[in-house]
Amino acid sequence: MESRTLVAEREYDRADVFVCDMLEGYTRSAVKKLFDGNVTINGRQAKPSQSVSAGDVACVNLPEPVSAEAKPEDIPIDIVYEDNDIAVINKQQGLTVHAGNGNPDGTLVNALLYRLDNLSGIGGVIRPGIVHRIDKNTSGLLVVAKNDAAHLSLARQIAEKTCRRTYLALLEGNVKADSGVISACIGRDPSDRVRMAVVDERHGKSAVTEYEVLERSRGYTLCRFVLQTGRTHQIRVHAKYIGHPVVGDDVYGRKKREFGLKGQLLHACRLELDHPATGKRMCFTAPLPDYFSAVLKKLGFTVIV
Fold it and tell me: Which class would CATH give 2-62?
């Protein structure tokens, strides 16, 4: 049985919310089961409903995973670039990056294991090679590490903001300002733990997104976004926060998707990084998927990227 030590960086009204926030990949219901004798806080058996103060230390005993190791699967993927240290993938919409609740297989990781000879082990057997993620229904570029040295270098670049990630998104409504910076903390939505939301700094982490309007047409706005931080669902949550959700996002926008879409019109179009081995600055681009371009053309946009 694996034991994890968790330190609270802020106050929580409930211990199960604290543990859920700290244990990636665990749902609230799964976390509640851990409280049956497997969670202590400051050395005492904990209850899910008890409060947590900043600095409290929890010890969580995790059950052994069942068949956790990802297996190779022949899933088509677009490998934009590959060498001995990294691979850059243009991920298609609908493909989950790694296994999680409800997605035990059929992921990008399964495809990578089939197509690449080596992947870094820092992410463990469930997430080999994965340095950063993009949502299942978001398309576009992400970099994969093929060894641990590359993984550490890329993770450091992301943390230090020298790895530049640029997205294109079609938003609902007319965004008034031509450009701006959205700085608003993101954490779990207190009314729906599956979703994220803009929350106060006690209940979330700093999140900063730059945006620039490229064009407006017929009640929609095409924007370029640059991530300064990498919070879960960051662009989608920030877009909702400013009152202009991403088109096709049935979690943070309209429940009924428009234009026959299968997901949000959000695409990671550009990725800039320093090569982990050579230090050379590299830039990769990925064109908009056909379904994205088709919507822009239908709405009369002239900037078809």
Answer: alpha beta
At residue 193, the pLDDT reads: 72
Which position among 135, 189, 192, 290 bears the catalytic label?
A: 135
The CA distance from 183 to 165, in Å, is 17
85 given a catalytic annotation: no
Task: Name which of 98, 241, 253, 233 is nearest 182 in CA terms.
Answer: 241
CATH of domain 166-269+290-298: 3.30.2350.10
pLDDT higher than threshold 90 for residue 125: no
Element (H, E) at 187: strand 186-189
Asked if residues 11 and 51 have their Cβ atoms less than 8 Å apart, the reply is yes
DSSP, res 287: P
- Whether residue 1 is predicted with pLDDT greater than 70 in this model: the reply is no
pTM summary value: 0.78
Residue 65 has pLDDT above 60, yes or no: no
